[in-house]
Amino acid sequence: EMIDLPVSENQAKYEDEFGSHKDDIATMFMKRFKTQISQLKTYIQQQLQKLQGHRHHHHDTEAMAESGSDDDDEDLTRDEFNLNKLIVLVTGAGKVFGVRSTNGHIEWEHFFPELAPFDGNNQQKLLLFVQRTTAHFPNPPQCTVVGKHKGTGNGFLFSFNPISGEPVDTPPTGQVLNYRITQTSMLGELDDHFLRGILLMDPDNQIHVFPGKCLSVLKKTFGSQYMFVADRETGFIKGYRTVPNQGKFLMENVWTVNLQKKQQTITQVVGKRPLEQVHSQGRVLGDRSVLYRYLNPNLVVVVTEGEFIEQSQRGGVFNTINLYLLDSVTGHMVFHCSHKRAKGPITVVHSENWVVYNYFNQKSRRLEMAVLELYEGKEQSNSTAFSSFSSPRQPLVLRQSYIMPLFISTMATTVTEKGITSKQIIFALKLGGLLALPKALLDPRRPLVPTQETMEEGTIPYIPELPVNAEAIINYNQSLYNVQGIHTSPAGLESTSLVLSYGLDLYFTRVQPSKMFDVLKEDFDYFFISAVLLGMFVVTIATQKLSARRALSRAWK
What we know:
Elements: E1 2-4, H1 9-18, H2 25-55, H3 57-67, E2 85-90, E3 95-100, E4 106-111, E5 115-116, E6 118-120, E7 123-125, E8 127-132, E9 142-149, E10 155-160, E11 175-176, E12 183-186, E13 198-201, E14 207-210, H4 215-221, E15 226-230, E16 236-245, E17 248-258, E18 264-270, E19 282-284, E20 290-293, E21 299-309, E22 317-327, E23 333-340, E24 342-343, E25 348-351, E26 354-361, E27 366-377, E28 396-404, E29 408-413, E30 424-429, E31 434-438, H5 452-457, E32 483-490, E33 497-503, E34 506-511, H6 526-556
Antiparallel strand pairs: 1-2, 2-3, 3-4, 5-9, 6-7, 8-9, 9-10, 10-11, 12-13, 13-14, 15-16, 16-17, 18-21, 19-20, 20-27, 21-22, 22-23, 24-26, 25-26, 26-27, 27-28, 29-30, 30-31, 32-33, 33-34
Transmembrane segments: 524-543
Subcellular location: Endoplasmic reticulum membrane
Family: Belongs to the EMC1 family.
């Protein structure tokens, strides 16, 4: 996870000024006065430092070269555009790191020899939850690592402050639970201290809340807490809801989907980001109508792999891939498709109203990328809220496939603060590159023959093979092999998305899918703009006086 750095001292005083609703007018006035005095003092200090820096620039350069550690001693404070982050990393060996995104310096680290990852869907995972961010001053941020104990298999928790690395609510060596964990989730609402609790489900379907002080939130919202468990061994996907039972909370089974274990095996279960920002609810077409997106936050993608027997003269057993779109609250099957003579490994990206995934076509012996986009149609069912319990309306599903000329190991999509910027798909190539392609290239509405309407929309004509441009390689000459995953995070600038790839190496960079439209260029001519504005102001004043003088002379006539 990428954690926002805390604000500076002056910004913290601003937060303190508006943080309490119990202060009277005099107290708020004094806080405002102290804040402005502090800002003035900081401004004077900055100007003095700039003057001293110009005078002793060569001396500072020599001193920095001798010390060799100029950035390590800087305070961990947020920059103007929130581009610098603290990256929290958890390894399969049981180590937790806090790394600066600016220089890769390790701020703190912990080692838990008894911490082991969960096994599921052909991969091992340790779960990292961000329970509180740095946005809720003066409450400190908090993260929690969830895994299992190597010896007993019971749950293992470690909660900490991601900025300082100090333990919170758990011992420094971690907390071992007295039960196993079958599923985890986060509460949908915050408590009074802006902390989001973690729900832990044990084999007896009992719900535990961590930390315990968040139990009051569960008591208020238990009717809207749902979970699902996909069992790879049996092929069953079961959905649960929270119900009270004698002072405790249990998960009641409300739906079950059987994916026939004998025919296929679950290999991927991919949901959406919990707090994903979607800017536009529709897509404007060339005829000025709107195609509304199917935005279901409870939609999950389930991928299975199996075999099928071809009923033909040749016969034979071939691999097949099935993809299911499932509502995790009601168990409603929204969509299903199958790819025969195809095999994995499969990587899925699920965002907004679209799904992008890859597979190997055994018949054509090539890697293919498939894209699905879901729409409600030209009439929107509910523009203010979405409910899985409303009458299920089958969405319009648009599909298309493309040829990927290079093999990939994983992929992810960019995210921004408000979701306004166009999306990019980041591919980790097995040749060692990170390739950034616009999502517009993976559009199922790309026409074979362009029409006037599609040209007005700006839709690119369909070409089967995706282009690989050398300028789209975002890691330049830094080769990255055996990339296990890509994590993206928004920055303070809407145009910018932060990208971290991890595997054998860690690589951090920034991308601008729609260019940097919210920052002025370095060669921006401030003098010319200022001169034009000043000239317009002078002309306005002169014209106003001339008009008043002419009106006065006309009145005397």
